[in-house]
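Q: Two folds, back to back.
A: First:
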Amino acid sequence: MGVGNKLSQISRRDLFKLAGQYGMSSTLLAAGAFGGAMSIGSLARAAESTYERRFSKPAKFNLKFGAAGFNARNLLIERAGALEFARDLEARTDGEIRIEFIGDNQICGQLSCVEKTQLGVVDIYAASTQNSAGGAPYLNVLDYAYMFPSRAAQYHFLYSPESQRILRDPLEERHGLKFLFSHAELRGMQMGLGWKDKPITKLEDLFGSKNRVTGTQLGRIAMQALNLNPVPVAWEETLDGLRQGLIDGAETWASAVAYANMSPVVSKSVDLKFFCGTEHTSMSAKVFNSLDGYLQDAVLESSYWAQTHVQAANEAALVNTVGFSNPQLPGTIFLENDVEPIFLPDSEIKMAEEMCSPEFQPQLWEQWRERLNGWAGGIDTYQEIYNIAREIPLDMKAENVEPRRWWKG
């Protein structure tokens, strides 16, 4: 793998040896803070000083962070902000909150992290809202087709004080989760190697293909309307499904393909932008409420800091690390694995929108829309988010969205 893999020169064995000495969290936090290449010696020194700083006094709260399949390596590809949040919160609280970061699917995976948080096995988790929608169905509220026209619109909504009323409060009331921050991409179709020599220039070229869908119920509605034959496949099994040709493609977003080592089995990344791809971090509301007021403030400030970091870092990584651009930069993961990004003309995206969005096909969404509106206290969830998403210019770049502290109104 080209860029973004600073840990590549360190063997897994050496990494675990260091982790045995200083703990996995101190080792990962140290690794995540490196700016360039590192040797085992430099990582050992960094892990030692990180360990000494983190354990210089007893923590008031030790929180377990279940980060699905993430680690210091792949969080440099998809910039979901999990390690940055942990590092900032420990520093901001002067070690009163200490975080045990457990990634690599060791304590929970994309589908189970939400439930493990609700059960109290972990206190904080990172996974996509779509995969988490199985355990917290209100997260489906983000998944109406073509509700967000751009990544900028997604960030604008996440920063909006209105997100408190429409997304965060109902999620906390219904599912006991405090939504902290999220990365933002829009989902497209990631087509397997069988599509290498098939040109994709219009939406119709994808009709009739068989594709993996996540845990989101709303994603299925959109895919059925687009004739994309959704097949539920767990994230952890998607790579094999593509490799063996059991599915033609998978709906997910570009950096997810890159971080999960799926690039070797994907030939085309089609930017359909048809619904949210949000790798979010949430916390148990019960745990949050058990913290002292000043520590709750620190959690919110670290979430805000992580949100601003993710907004800038993921936009840069899409071009510099993933290679989701045209032309592609040399050394990027997509270019090195021969993955072709396909950006369909606006007219094709408009056609997709007219085929599947609640604006043009309201009958497809009635049942879920009614359910989500009821859970949110009777507001029209789709229309309200749709309107907020269009408060900014359609062509605004995601990195230019103004950050706001959403909880301050």
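A: Second:
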Amino acid sequence: MAPPVHAAAQASGITTLTLDSPANRNALSSALVAALRAALATAAADPGTRAVVLTHTGTTFCAGADLKSPCDPADFLALLREIAELRVPVVARVTGHVRAGGLGLLGACDIAAAGPDSSFALTETHLGLAPAVISIPLLPRLDPRAANRYFLTGERFDAAEATRIGLLTLHTGPGEDLDQALRPVLDGLRKAAPRALAETKALVTAGLRAGLAEQGPRLTELSARLFASDEAREGITARFERRDPSWAR
């Protein structure tokens, strides 16, 4: 079986990690989370690495939790902490759809960019769940009114809206090249002195790291409890059966 995360050789200070689990649309399975944690650690251990670019194959960056075989919420929390604590910046490069827990990955990344074909939705409430652990990296970044709306309703929104509300750093429109838009960002990171870059990342992630440490255990427990609930069983079953859940009106 092919690994769910591929690491490209470090090129000019940039290591690219590619989520590549097409069978489940790069959902957060135990295998993908473990592979991504290992790949991040390997990239950070290379003294030549100035930044990690996190991207994907296919039309979905990350579909959220693998509903057939979800990862342990504690392992997902550990992944978010490792992104925040990594000595180098992590840049998300998105050209497809992002759902639920996938938005948590974006929130943990230092910089996030997306193309015009991307879309976003926090679909947890439709499944009998809540965006528990991912609220830690997302809420400090998002416009509060937008967070209320999209956390509660599960509505889909596009890259322009994602940038407006603070989820994305930048986005490109139709006909624009996402890699070209990211070029000045990556050039700036390449020019940074390694220790200065690490210390500056520590400054800008201080609040996120504190939030993950302080709130993580409580929200991990909430996530596990909701996944085991009757509502979640109904919501997930309805999703697989392609029908509305019993509570839908």
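Q: And?
A: Residues 84 and 205 are 6 Å apart (CA to CA).
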